[in-house]
Automatic annotation (TrEMBL):
Pfam families: DHquinase_II. Substrate binds at residues 73, 79, 86, 100-101, 110. This is 3-dehydroquinate dehydratase. Belongs to the type-II 3-dehydroquinase family. Signal peptide: none annotated. Catalyzes a trans-dehydration via an enolate intermediate. CDD domains: DHQase_II. The active site is at residues 21, 99. It is an enzyme of class 4 (lyase). Keywords: Amino-acid biosynthesis, Aromatic amino acid biosynthesis, Lyase. GO terms for molecular function: 3-dehydroquinate dehydratase activity.
């Protein structure tokens, strides 16, 4: 099973700046991820929190919950959360960082990811397809499907 974590404000997807993040709601995105996971032979569990500490605890506990990989969209925490960076480093599972928007084509403060240095890789700029591509990577590296 792969743990999909969406961070702050991603519960507002569909309504939040749709010209940047699209019109797909979080619920729809979660359903898409389940379907894409199923195609790849990956079970997925979707979680979202607006709280940094909750995300830290989910990351810390992922291996004990028997997850084999993590897909993480840290939202704005991407750009400043050393706590999330340390949480990723504290555990052995591969983490793929995902963003709907191309953070490198946006405001200066979004161009740096603090969390990315502990991630296997980053996929950004492809909207909901960023999640699909991350699942494809995880399926390959986890040798399932
Ligand atoms: C985001 C990009 C972040 O800069 C922003 O704070 C978000 C969403 C994305 O998916 O494009 O909340 O992670």
């Amino acid at each position: 099973m792969v743990l999909i974590l969406n961070g702050p404000n991603l519960n507002m997807l569909g309504r939040r700046e749709p010209e940047i993040y699209g019109r797909t709601t979080l619920e729809e995105l979660e359903e898409l991820c389940e379907a894409w996971g199923a195609e790849l032979g990956l079970g997925v569990v979707n979680r979202q929190s607006n709280y940094e500490g909750q995300l830290v605890e989910w990351i810390q506990g992922a291996e004990a919950e028997d997850f084999v990989g993590i897909l993480l969209n840290p939202g704005a925490l991407t750009h400043y959360s050393v706590a999330l960076l340390d949480a990723i480093k504290s555990q052995p599972l591969p983490v793929v960082e995902v963003h709907l928007s191309n953070i490198h084509a946006r405001e200066e403060f979004r161009r740096h990811s603090v969390t990315a240095q502990a991630a296997r890789g980053i996929i950004c700029g492809f909207g909901t397809l960023s999640y699909r591509l991350a699942l494809l990577y995880l399926a390959e590296v986890l040798e399932v499907g």
